[in-house]
Amino acid sequence: MAQLKLSSLAKHFGTAVAVEHVDLEVQDGELVALLGPSGCGKTTTLRMVAGFVTPTAGQILIGGQDVTHAPPYARDTGMVFQSYALFPHMSVAQNVSFGLEMRRLGRAEREARVGEALKLVKLDHLAERLPRELSGGQQQRVALARALAVNPSVFLLDEPLSNLDAKLRSEVRLQIRALQQRLGLTTLIVTHDQEEALTMADRLVVMDRGKVLQVGTAEELYERPANAFVAGFVGRCNLISGFIDPDRMFRCDWGGAFKTPDSSTPGKAIFALRPERVALQPGAGQGIAGRITAITYLGSVSEYHVDVAGNGFLVSMPPPPNDSPLRRLRVDDPVSLSWDVAAVRILPFEPSSNQGDEP
Amino acid sequence: MMVAARRILFRGWVLLAYLAIFAPVVMIVTISFFQQEIVSFPPEGLTLRWYWNAWQRPEFARGFVSSLQIAALATVIGVPIGTAAALALVRSSLPGRGAFNSLLLGPLAVPGVVAGAALYMFYVRTENFLDQDIIATLGGLIAGHTLLTIPWTVRLVAASLQGLDRAAEEAAANLGARPFTVFRRVTLPMMRPGIVAASMFSFIQSFENLDLTMLLVGPGRSTLPVAMLSYLEFRIDPTLAAVATVQILLVGILMAVTDHFVKLSRVI
């Protein structure tokens, strides 16, 4: 295992910029997730690390060694592909053995390491099967074993769970995480699924349109998003654009006014508030008056969509107890919203930006 | 009611289509067992006499062996060439690939007689130039038949290449395989269904070719279809049906064997 370092990495396809100036260090044994919507450049970045895409500018260092222009076969990376990319004409054992053959290991050692790798993913009993005779989840584990058998310096995962069904996905991501921690693998994973990134990664890199927007732990990104895109992409968020007046009141574009934390400075801004930090009372009481437009029961939480002067507000909370008046709320009922000003985040104003998952 | 009626009508059409396809085959096989020399219904009796007759005529035996030889060698030469061409067409960034593609598929569009006549004239010139026989030699026939195998190979192999998962090749490179090793260990085996199908088609194309071959054979060197045509010029008895039945059987076996390795419905 080794450290992976990307500095000022960029990729242009003609005039189109796929990746712009990515700086990132993945420490020894750390799992970093590249997170972003499709087309954000995360896969291109991963493919540059693997050597399938030649960077336009910048440097890639694996264990301190510059591999920017090394061909894929000369880089010590192990990659798991989104489609698994198993060799269809080879048995499971032959698939796993391939990388070891390329490293010119003797037969005895190859067999031992294939056995070990398959045991790691609990597939040792299926060694002689062909890939097409396995389920999707099993194929995925063969792909993992094949990449791990060569004991790579850097482990690369390209949307490894996107072809699995939801139940299996949450299981496998924990298994991959456990394996990664046990083996101390320096890992870079690409995903568009924020939940996947939050559960697996030590640190997340949020990307959009070729740029890195923020790097941090799940908590940092959730509690202190750098901008509206991150706030909307990592978890859900109420985002309102407007400006802060000299009295530190946030003036929404639609006319509402909210208090902001003392640290805020006047000027154009985006007001961000997590849905679970908003309290909801039935009836027109103190607070912001609104009207329920939809209620979604999700088991562990209930989500209330509230219309405030023509603008959507999302409120989430654990389902209220049976005797609570909240239980009797119906669509079109009046409600009032309130929140602690400390929960408010003021984010930089972005004129034409895509503000992520605005409710 | 309407739906049921339509379905019956549709089934009727399908049945008719199958009949149209299989009737000649069934006819030929049946006639080959008829006793009388001039075919008429009903048969006076059934016999294997025509098979014995075909077996005893040297031109059929020799033609059969020649046809096998030529088809096998043309396939062995044409399939690698066609495969290489398909690789270049699908994988390289060669300029003018579209033009090359049309050129390679050309023999499919040109009538065999025209191609045969052109080849004949080309062979005559070359013979004069090299002072060596080409027409009616095994080499000349194989060269001509190789021409028949290339377009089919290009088509079938290119189709199988287009459907190939390139991530598997990337995975091999990622595991440390150099480009040639990737090709040998991953790309080529994954192309196998296309290559097997191409070989079978090439073999059959060559084995049963008449029009192009007709112009390139000579005394002492003929193929089975040409021998059959010559026989027909003088006689019309069920011997030909017997020979044709053997031919149909051989092609059928070839298809069945290929289908065992590669599901034909997947490549064609």
Summarize this, please?
The complex is a heterodimer of chains A (359) and B (268). With 359 residues, chain A is α+β, with helices and mostly antiparallel strands.
Any overview of this molecule?
The complex is a heterodimer of chains A (359) and B (268). Chain A has 359 residues and is of the alpha+beta class. Chain A folds into two domains: 4-223, 3-Layer(aba) Sandwich (Rossmann fold), CATH 3.40.50.300; 237-348, OB fold (Dihydrolipoamide Acetyltransferase, E2P). Chain A has helices at 42-50, 92-102, 107-120, 136-149, 166-183, 194-200, 218-223, 228-233; strands spanning 4-13, 16-26, 31-35, 57-62, 65-66, 77-80, 154-158, 186-191, 203-208, 211-216, 238-244, 249-252, 257-259, 267-273, 278-282, 288-297, 302-308, 311-317, 334-339, 345-348. In chain A, helix 2 (92-102) runs parallel beside helix 4 and helix 3 (107-120) crosses helix 4. Chain A is elongated, with a radius of gyration of 24 Å. Chain B has a domain at 62-236: MetI-like fold. Chain B has helices spanning 2-31, 49-56, 58-91, 97-109, 112-130, 138-162, 166-174, 179-207, 211-214, 224-234, 239-261, 264-267. The longest helix of chain B is centred in the first third of the chain and has 34 residues, at 58-91. Chain B starts with a helix and ends with a helix. At the A-B interface, strand 6, helix 2 and helix 4 of A face helix 7 and helix 8 of B.
Descriptive terms for the model:
heterodimer; A: about 350 residues; alpha+beta; OB fold (Dihydrolipoamide Acetyltransferase, E2P); 2 domains; 8 helices; about 25% helix; disordered C terminus; B: about 270 residues; mainly alpha; about 0% strand
